[in-house]
Design brief:
By secondary structure, the protein is an alpha/beta fold. The protein contains 7 helices and 5 strands. The protein is globular. Keywords: Flavoprotein, FMN, Oxidoreductase.
């Protein structure tokens, strides 16, 4: 099983990276996990030029940054684990740039090109803010349609509040154990063929 962990935080080794390691550890059973930290990638934002709307649905920025390599990794994965903080009720800039750049994939699907069989997608989001009724709604909706471009659905999500730094998470062994257990539970489900 090919597992891809997409780290959407602009901070290396931050809260959501810590979450990803816990979840991926349970999910992989100690096996290999491909990790892509978006903060290490050069991702230019969509210019809204609409070039991708026409066949062959190619983005003019495709050869100028790392977006296409990330898209290829998503398409090749059996399972994608997306972790990201939420800033001002949305995804961080680098993660949002990747989502927006998938417009060329969505344009192809809208034109009738089959999306293919996408990976199983698990998403875990964290926010420093402890309250807010719609805190995760915008991010989850954006991710839902981003992964739909690849023929995938969000199979399951975890949203955590009040976590400003890794220590906020690591000081709660119950929460750490829950994240690892969530990964293990999904490993069992996938092994049994019931995503």
């Amino acid at each position: 099983m090919r597992i891809l962990s997409l780290l959407g935080s602009p901070r290396a080794n931050g809260t959501t990276h810590t979450m990803a390691r816990l979840i991926a550890g349970g999910l992989s059973g100690g096996g290999p996990v491909e990790e892509i930290a978006l903060q290490e990638k050069h991702l230019r934002p969509c210019r809204g030029c609409q070039s991708c709307a026409a066949a062959p649905h190619v983005c003019p920025l495709a050869r100028t940054d790392d977006a296409e390599a990330v898209f290829a990794a998503i398409a090749a994965a059996d399972v994608v684990l997306w972790t990201s903080p939420v800033y001002f009720y949305g995804l961080p800039a680098q993660a949002k740039a990747l989502v927006d750049r998938s417009q060329r994939i969505w344009a192809g699907v809208e034109a009738g090109r089959p999306a293919g069989k996408g990976p199983v997608v698990l998403a875990a989001l964290a926010a420093a803010r402890p309250r807010g009724e719609q805190l995760f709604t915008g991010s989850l909706l954006g991710l839902k349609y981003f992964f739909a471009s690849f023929g995938a659905q969000l199979a399951d999500t975890r949203t955590l509040r009040g976590l400003s730094c890794p220590e906020d998470l690591l000081s709660r062994p119950d929460l750490c154990a829950d994240l690892e257990r969530w990964g293990r539970d999904w490993a069992v489900r996938l092994a049994e063929g019931r995503p």
